[in-house]
Amino acid sequence: MAMLPPWMRSGRVLTGLVVVSLIFLCAIFAPVLAPYDPNQQDLLAMFLPPAWAPGGDPAHLLGTDSLGRDVLSQLIYGARVAMTVAVVASVGAMLLGAVLAYIAGYFGGRVDAVISRAVDVWMSFPPVILSLILMVGLGVGLRNVILAIILVDWTRFCRVLRAEVMVTARRDYVSAARLVGFSHWRTITREIIPASLPLLITLMSLEMGIAVIVEAILSFVGMSVGAETPAWGQMIADARQYIYDSPWGLFFPVLAIFIAVFGFNMLGDGLRRTLDVRVAVTQRV
């Protein structure tokens, strides 16, 4: 354990890594792990409770829904949509927000003023409402969900990272780099980006949890993937009509979303505590 890096010795980081890794494994190996085709219907086995409940069938571990589809298989395949959106949308929002943050924080002046005002205007709209408006204009589809999340959430990265870049750009070692002839590009890539990387990693891991929630909301209102593609929000929308007949159909997708968001938040908080030098020093004091 002594040879491990500090972030690998954090209980929060390890807990988050285990949870997130398990969900990613379910998403990658869904065809192998899922006992049934998620769209396979059996009208003779509708509303089956979980296997351990009275009337349950061991062949359907978590029961079935209103069309006799296996809930466990839908959850496993639903992880594919959630993790795809979490990774791709988070990377896209991070790249867009980080580029603008480095430009605004490093150069300052009018460039910073323009970017900051754009961020303020964009953040004045409620994120979920703005996502729904964008989906109306873009249309239904996984690619459009990812694009909508990127266009909404880049401001999270830009606002937080800009403040960090402004502080870092005024450090003595950055001034020294400029004095010895470093170009703006080299100063940013060699001095400022490495210093802000821990914050960037933390923001991205937290954004993944947010992306899972946003995708679930959009699929709940029917503005994400099609009906033939299992998604956790879509499962909730279908199950809410039969909450008194099969509450487990509503409980399990909600639990899946909770576990995914919990894993990403634990990972992000653990990385922040271990990678951010200021937080680590404060905890020691």
Automatic annotation (TrEMBL):
<dbReference type="InterPro" id="IPR050366">
    <property type="entry name" value="BP-dependent_transpt_permease"/>
</dbReference>
<dbReference type="GO" id="GO:0055085">
    <property type="term" value="P:transmembrane transport"/>
</dbReference>
<keyword id="KW-0813">Transport</keyword>
<keyword id="KW-1003">Cell membrane</keyword>
<keyword id="KW-0812">Transmembrane</keyword>
<dbReference type="InterPro" id="IPR000515">
    <property type="entry name" value="MetI-like"/>
</dbReference>
<feature type="transmembrane region" description="Helical">
    <location>
        <begin position="199"/>
        <end position="227"/>
    </location>
</feature>
<dbReference type="InterPro" id="IPR035906">
    <property type="entry name" value="MetI-like_sf"/>
</dbReference>
<dbReference type="GO" id="GO:0015833">
    <property type="term" value="P:peptide transport"/>
</dbReference>
<dbReference type="InterPro" id="IPR025966">
    <property type="entry name" value="OppC_N"/>
</dbReference>
<keyword id="KW-0653">Protein transport</keyword>
<dbReference type="GO" id="GO:0015031">
    <property type="term" value="P:protein transport"/>
</dbReference>
<feature type="transmembrane region" description="Helical">
    <location>
        <begin position="128"/>
        <end position="152"/>
    </location>
</feature>
<feature type="transmembrane region" description="Helical">
    <location>
        <begin position="247"/>
        <end position="268"/>
    </location>
</feature>
<dbReference type="Pfam" id="PF00528">
    <property type="entry name" value="BPD_transp_1"/>
</dbReference>
<comment type="similarity">
    <text>Belongs to the binding-protein-dependent transport system permease family.</text>
</comment>
<feature type="transmembrane region" description="Helical">
    <location>
        <begin position="13"/>
        <end position="36"/>
    </location>
</feature>
<keyword id="KW-0472">Membrane</keyword>
<protein>
    <submittedName>
        <fullName>Peptide/nickel transport system permease protein</fullName>
    </submittedName>
</protein>
<feature type="transmembrane region" description="Helical">
    <location>
        <begin position="81"/>
        <end position="108"/>
    </location>
</feature>
<dbReference type="Pfam" id="PF12911">
    <property type="entry name" value="OppC_N"/>
</dbReference>
<keyword id="KW-0571">Peptide transport</keyword>
<keyword id="KW-1133">Transmembrane helix</keyword>
<dbReference type="GO" id="GO:0005886">
    <property type="term" value="C:plasma membrane"/>
</dbReference>
<feature type="domain" description="ABC transmembrane type-1">
    <location>
        <begin position="79"/>
        <end position="268"/>
    </location>
</feature>
